[in-house]
Target: Major facilitator superfamily (MFS) profile domain-containing protein
Amino acid sequence: MEKKLKALSHLYVTVFMSSFASFIVVPAITDVTMFALCPGTDECSVAIYVSGIQQAVIGIGTALMMPLIGNLSDQYGRKSLLTLPMALSIIPSAVLACSRTTNFFYAYYALRTLTAMICEGSINCLALAYLADNVTDSQRATAFGILSGISSGAYVCATLAARFISAGSIFQVATLVSMLALVYMRIFLEESIPDRDDSMTQPILKESEDAIQKDGNVVPRKMPAFKRIPSLRDIICLLRSSPSFTQAAVVAFLYSFAEGGMLASSMYYLKARFHFNKNQFADLLLIAGIIGTASQLFIMPLLVSPIGDGRLLSIGLFFSCVNNIIYSLAWSPWVPYASTALSVVMVYASPSLRSIVSKQVGPAEQGKAQGCISGVSSLANIIAPLIFSHLTALFLSEEAPFHFPGFSLLCVAITLAIAFITSLTIGNAPSNSSDKNSSSCMEAYHNIIVQLHKSSGPEAFSPSSEEASLRSTPSIYCKN
Model:
């Protein structure tokens, strides 16, 4: 237990530093983009479209890369795969650390687009899989909430630092912290590779299914055995592996679609309507981050057991919807600040969703599952900026069909309302990888092997091979 706690503490430090480096540039990047593309103005359609296109291209890349990275982490370990995105994330901030002129901005834009196809979301995805390797089902929602709280804490510290550091120094600090995070991870974080033996398990499972079909019995539902590079069919099979997993994937798509719309709209909306600058963005993000961090670290662990992760997901989505409605109707600069109070429950959505997904798969499929959900979220990030960037630019311009500057944010709220309704069908999703089901699962699988042994003769399965296969069988192959 002490060894696991030590490993998790190193993971939390790694996530904190990498998140800090990522978040510290957020309040400044809007001003840097507009200074490079439209100097001296508060409204810039070009900047909105450029940011939207970048977000869409990154979404295409991450949709393809997340399932691959998650699957490879199941094969080669979480630490090995973490090295790649953490190393690549250093490059873009290092470019703007040198200069923020137009030419350097274009270089940053190109490098950021390319590297983010691998880096965007992959560190969080692998960290979730690492946690799932080291905590039980009953503790998973709490652990995911703590990880999310660590990220929110990094968000608070980064935003507070951005509030008092000049724009040039911000990117230098981000570069330095990214390098420190990579070095720390390589030195202190222990490798985590799920226990598996596919070479022995998969052939037996295939023959077992054939035998059951011949007898006319029901075939147990199992997760697809991915190749090293999963195909689209593999991903679709995984997403359809259980009703709860499918519903969670739909909610993940809608939630990420709304988040992408918020990212593409909110800052440009606030800048055009209330003339917000870097410092005001930092203040707004700081307040929301402090509230969210405290809630995830201290309140969410108390609510997981009595309420359940399914209801926490619905609560988070509902209040996220309310928050966007308030944003879209904001009539004064203080309104966005007041609505940040809703962050106390809004932050429950993401860790609760990931916890539900994690419970639908076995220990050897955590990387696949988290990677596929990240891929689904990335698909939403492809579509969202293409729609919301156009809506934002249109309704902030003089050519708007009617006067409603926050119309794009109202559309985000409608998307979250649909996600909320969908989440109500999930409820408290049953665990397909819990320890309490393991004995009955292994007993059922043992019966399958015994039947095959009788029908195929003593030569087909020796006692030693049967015992080894039972030990190596992932729990995902035995679902109720």
Remarks:
- The first helix runs from residue 2 to 23.
- Residues 237 and 417 are 28 Å apart (CA to CA).
